[in-house]
Structure formats: C-alpha cells, structure tokens
Amino acid sequence: MSLRLFIGNYNYSSWSLRPWLILRKMEVPFTTEMVDLDVPGFKQRLLEISPAGTVPVLDVNGERIPDSLAIAEFCAKMVPNLWPKDEADKSEARRVTQMMHEGFEALRREAPMNLKRRTDGPMPKSCLKDAAFIVDMWDDLLSRHDGPYLFNDWSIADAFYTPVATRFESYGLPRTRRSDTYISELMSDEHFQEWEALAFAEDHVLPETDAVNA
C-alpha cells in the first residue's frame, strides 16, 4: 500500500499534525508532501490536491482522503487499537474527538497553533472560556482512567488534542496540575518532538498568524 500525506507547514498546521501523528503511531511507511501556506499559487496547488482546497489529504494508492477525521477513521480500520478497546470509552473518545474537530472556534482564532511562539500576555475571554472547558474535560477523563492519556493508552483522541496542548504552551493558557502533566506527556512524545524539530527548522513565516495577540 502506498501512502502519501499532504500537509501544511509544520509550525502552523494543526490539522496536518493530527493525521501525521496517527500514521507515525501506526508504524507504517508513508511519505509527506508539504504545501507552503499563504504563498503565491498555494490555493491553486491545494485545489490540485483536493476539491476542498485544504490539507491534510491522504493519498492511498491514488485515492485521496481529505479531512483529518476521515483520515483518522481510515487509519483506525487498518489498526483498530487507535481507538480505545472498551466500547464505552471508544464512544466517548469519538465524541470528544468530534468536539475538537468541530468546535472551540475562539481558541482556534485567538490562539492559533504556532509552535515557535511563547507569550504569557492577556488573552481574550472567549479564548480563556474555551481553554477552561478543555481543561475541565481533560481533568474529568484523566480522573476516570489510569493514564497517562485520556483513555489510558494513546488514541486518536490524544492526536486531536495534541495541537491544543501546544497552544497552552505557546500562549501560557491556564491549566490545572493534572492537565499540565497531560500536556507535558503529549509534548514529550517522541513523534511530536520529531514534528516540533521540523517546525523549528523551517523558515516559512505566516505574518498574520504571528501577529495574533502579539
């Protein structure tokens, strides 16, 4: 099987990080092709990859799967333990993953993923509200499982919340001790650190993103 993942820039593309982590955890060979964002011609390049004009996109033997959640579900068919084994936990993991996939607009807008960013300045109330909701959810799930991840072992849910965890680090968002430990676990993951190293090595800059809450 030939797998090729089209991604955006390492420093900024939270949507791309999710399926990349999942594929790395699967330990299957795949290649990546980056599309630099916000450069001349990038929109046309994205439309050539997928009618949606977005990344990530997973090419599987010439067939293309757009959308990070659709890619995750495809991967879970290949490796079922990417979701929790317990049926109740699997249902809950899918629910909170879908929540991340569709929600938290203020957090996305006011604290976009920017791995090189470090600030502890004041953040908008709407962003802090989203962050507090996420921390409460993490704390609840972590209190009901043995950890160190949301559903004991690493799962797709953790892949989807890894880019969120980076925002807590980048923007100094408040968190509890339990959630801080979870964030540290995600940040110390060997595959995330591989991605982060690639982010720090790239030169591409998105000035508008860098200017958010600067």
Gross morphology: globular
Secondary structural class: alpha+beta
The biggest sheet amounts to: 4 strands, mixed
Helix share bin:
40-55%
Name given to the CATH architecture of the largest domain: Up-down Bundle
- Sketch the topology as an H/E string, one letter per element: EHEHEEHHHHHHHH
Question: What is the C-level CATH assignment of the largest domain?
Answer: Mainly Alpha
Overall domain count? 2
Strand sequence of the main sheet, in spatial order?
Answer: 2-1-3-4
At CATH level 3, the topology of the largest domain is Glutathione S-transferase Yfyf (Class Pi), Chain A, domain 2
**Number of DSSP E strands:** 4
Q: Give the mean pLDDT.
A: 96
Straight-line distance between termini: 44 Å
Name the beta content range.
5-15%
Domain GST N-terminal: 3-83
Pfam families: GST_N_2
Organism: Algimonas porphyrae
InterPro entries: Glutathione-S-Trfase_C_sf, Glutathione_S-Trfase_N, Thioredoxin-like_sf
